Amino acid sequence: MATNDKTNINLHLLEPRATEKSYLEQTNRIYVFPVKKSMGKQEIAKMVEKEFNVTVTDVRTLIRNGKKTKFSKGKHAYPGTTFRQDKKFAYVKLKKGDSIKVFDDQPEEPKKVEKPAKSAKKEDK
């Protein structure tokens, strides 16, 4: 049975990035996902809609170049440089009213620690 659907959710799990920048973007209903470099915008939109049951209105993609790193093959070997792998991120905007839970919206309240009672020595003076 041949299908035209190239995406297979079981092969690639989508998980939104949990960073400060992505937290700020969520106020505008924009979520950041790391995706495979070969994926297109339509594939990303379909996967997000299937995985989280939301409606995608816009997808923007970004490829970040890998950082330059130094390496050495031993004490007397000539050191060289190489690059880390490039990464692709998708900025997905959802329909008004839809959301994906990434962060806990309400942080736990800190427990109040009771201070020990003042000692009686100070009161005697």
Give an overview in words.
- This protein is α+β, with helices and mostly antiparallel strands.
- The chain has a domain of 87 residues: 2-Layer Sandwich (Alpha-Beta Plaits), CATH 3.30.70.330.
- 18% of the residues lie in helices and 25% in strands.
- It contains three helices and five strands.
- The chain starts with 19 loop residues before the first helix and ends with a helix.
- 9% of the residues are buried.
Task: Offer a concise description of the structure.
The protein has 125 residues and is α+β, with helices and mostly antiparallel strands.
Secondary structure tally: strands = 5
Our Rg estimate from Cα atoms comes to 25 Å
pLDDT averaged residue by residue: 80
The major β-sheet equals: 3 strands, antiparallel
Query: Oligomerization state of this entry?
Result: single chain
Kindly list the characteristics that best describe this protein.
two-stranded antiparallel ribbon
Topology diagram in text:
Layout: H1 20-25, E1 30-35, H2 41-52, E2 56-64, E3 68-71, E4 80-83, E5 87-94, H3 120-124
Antiparallel strand pairs: 1-5, 2-5, 3-4
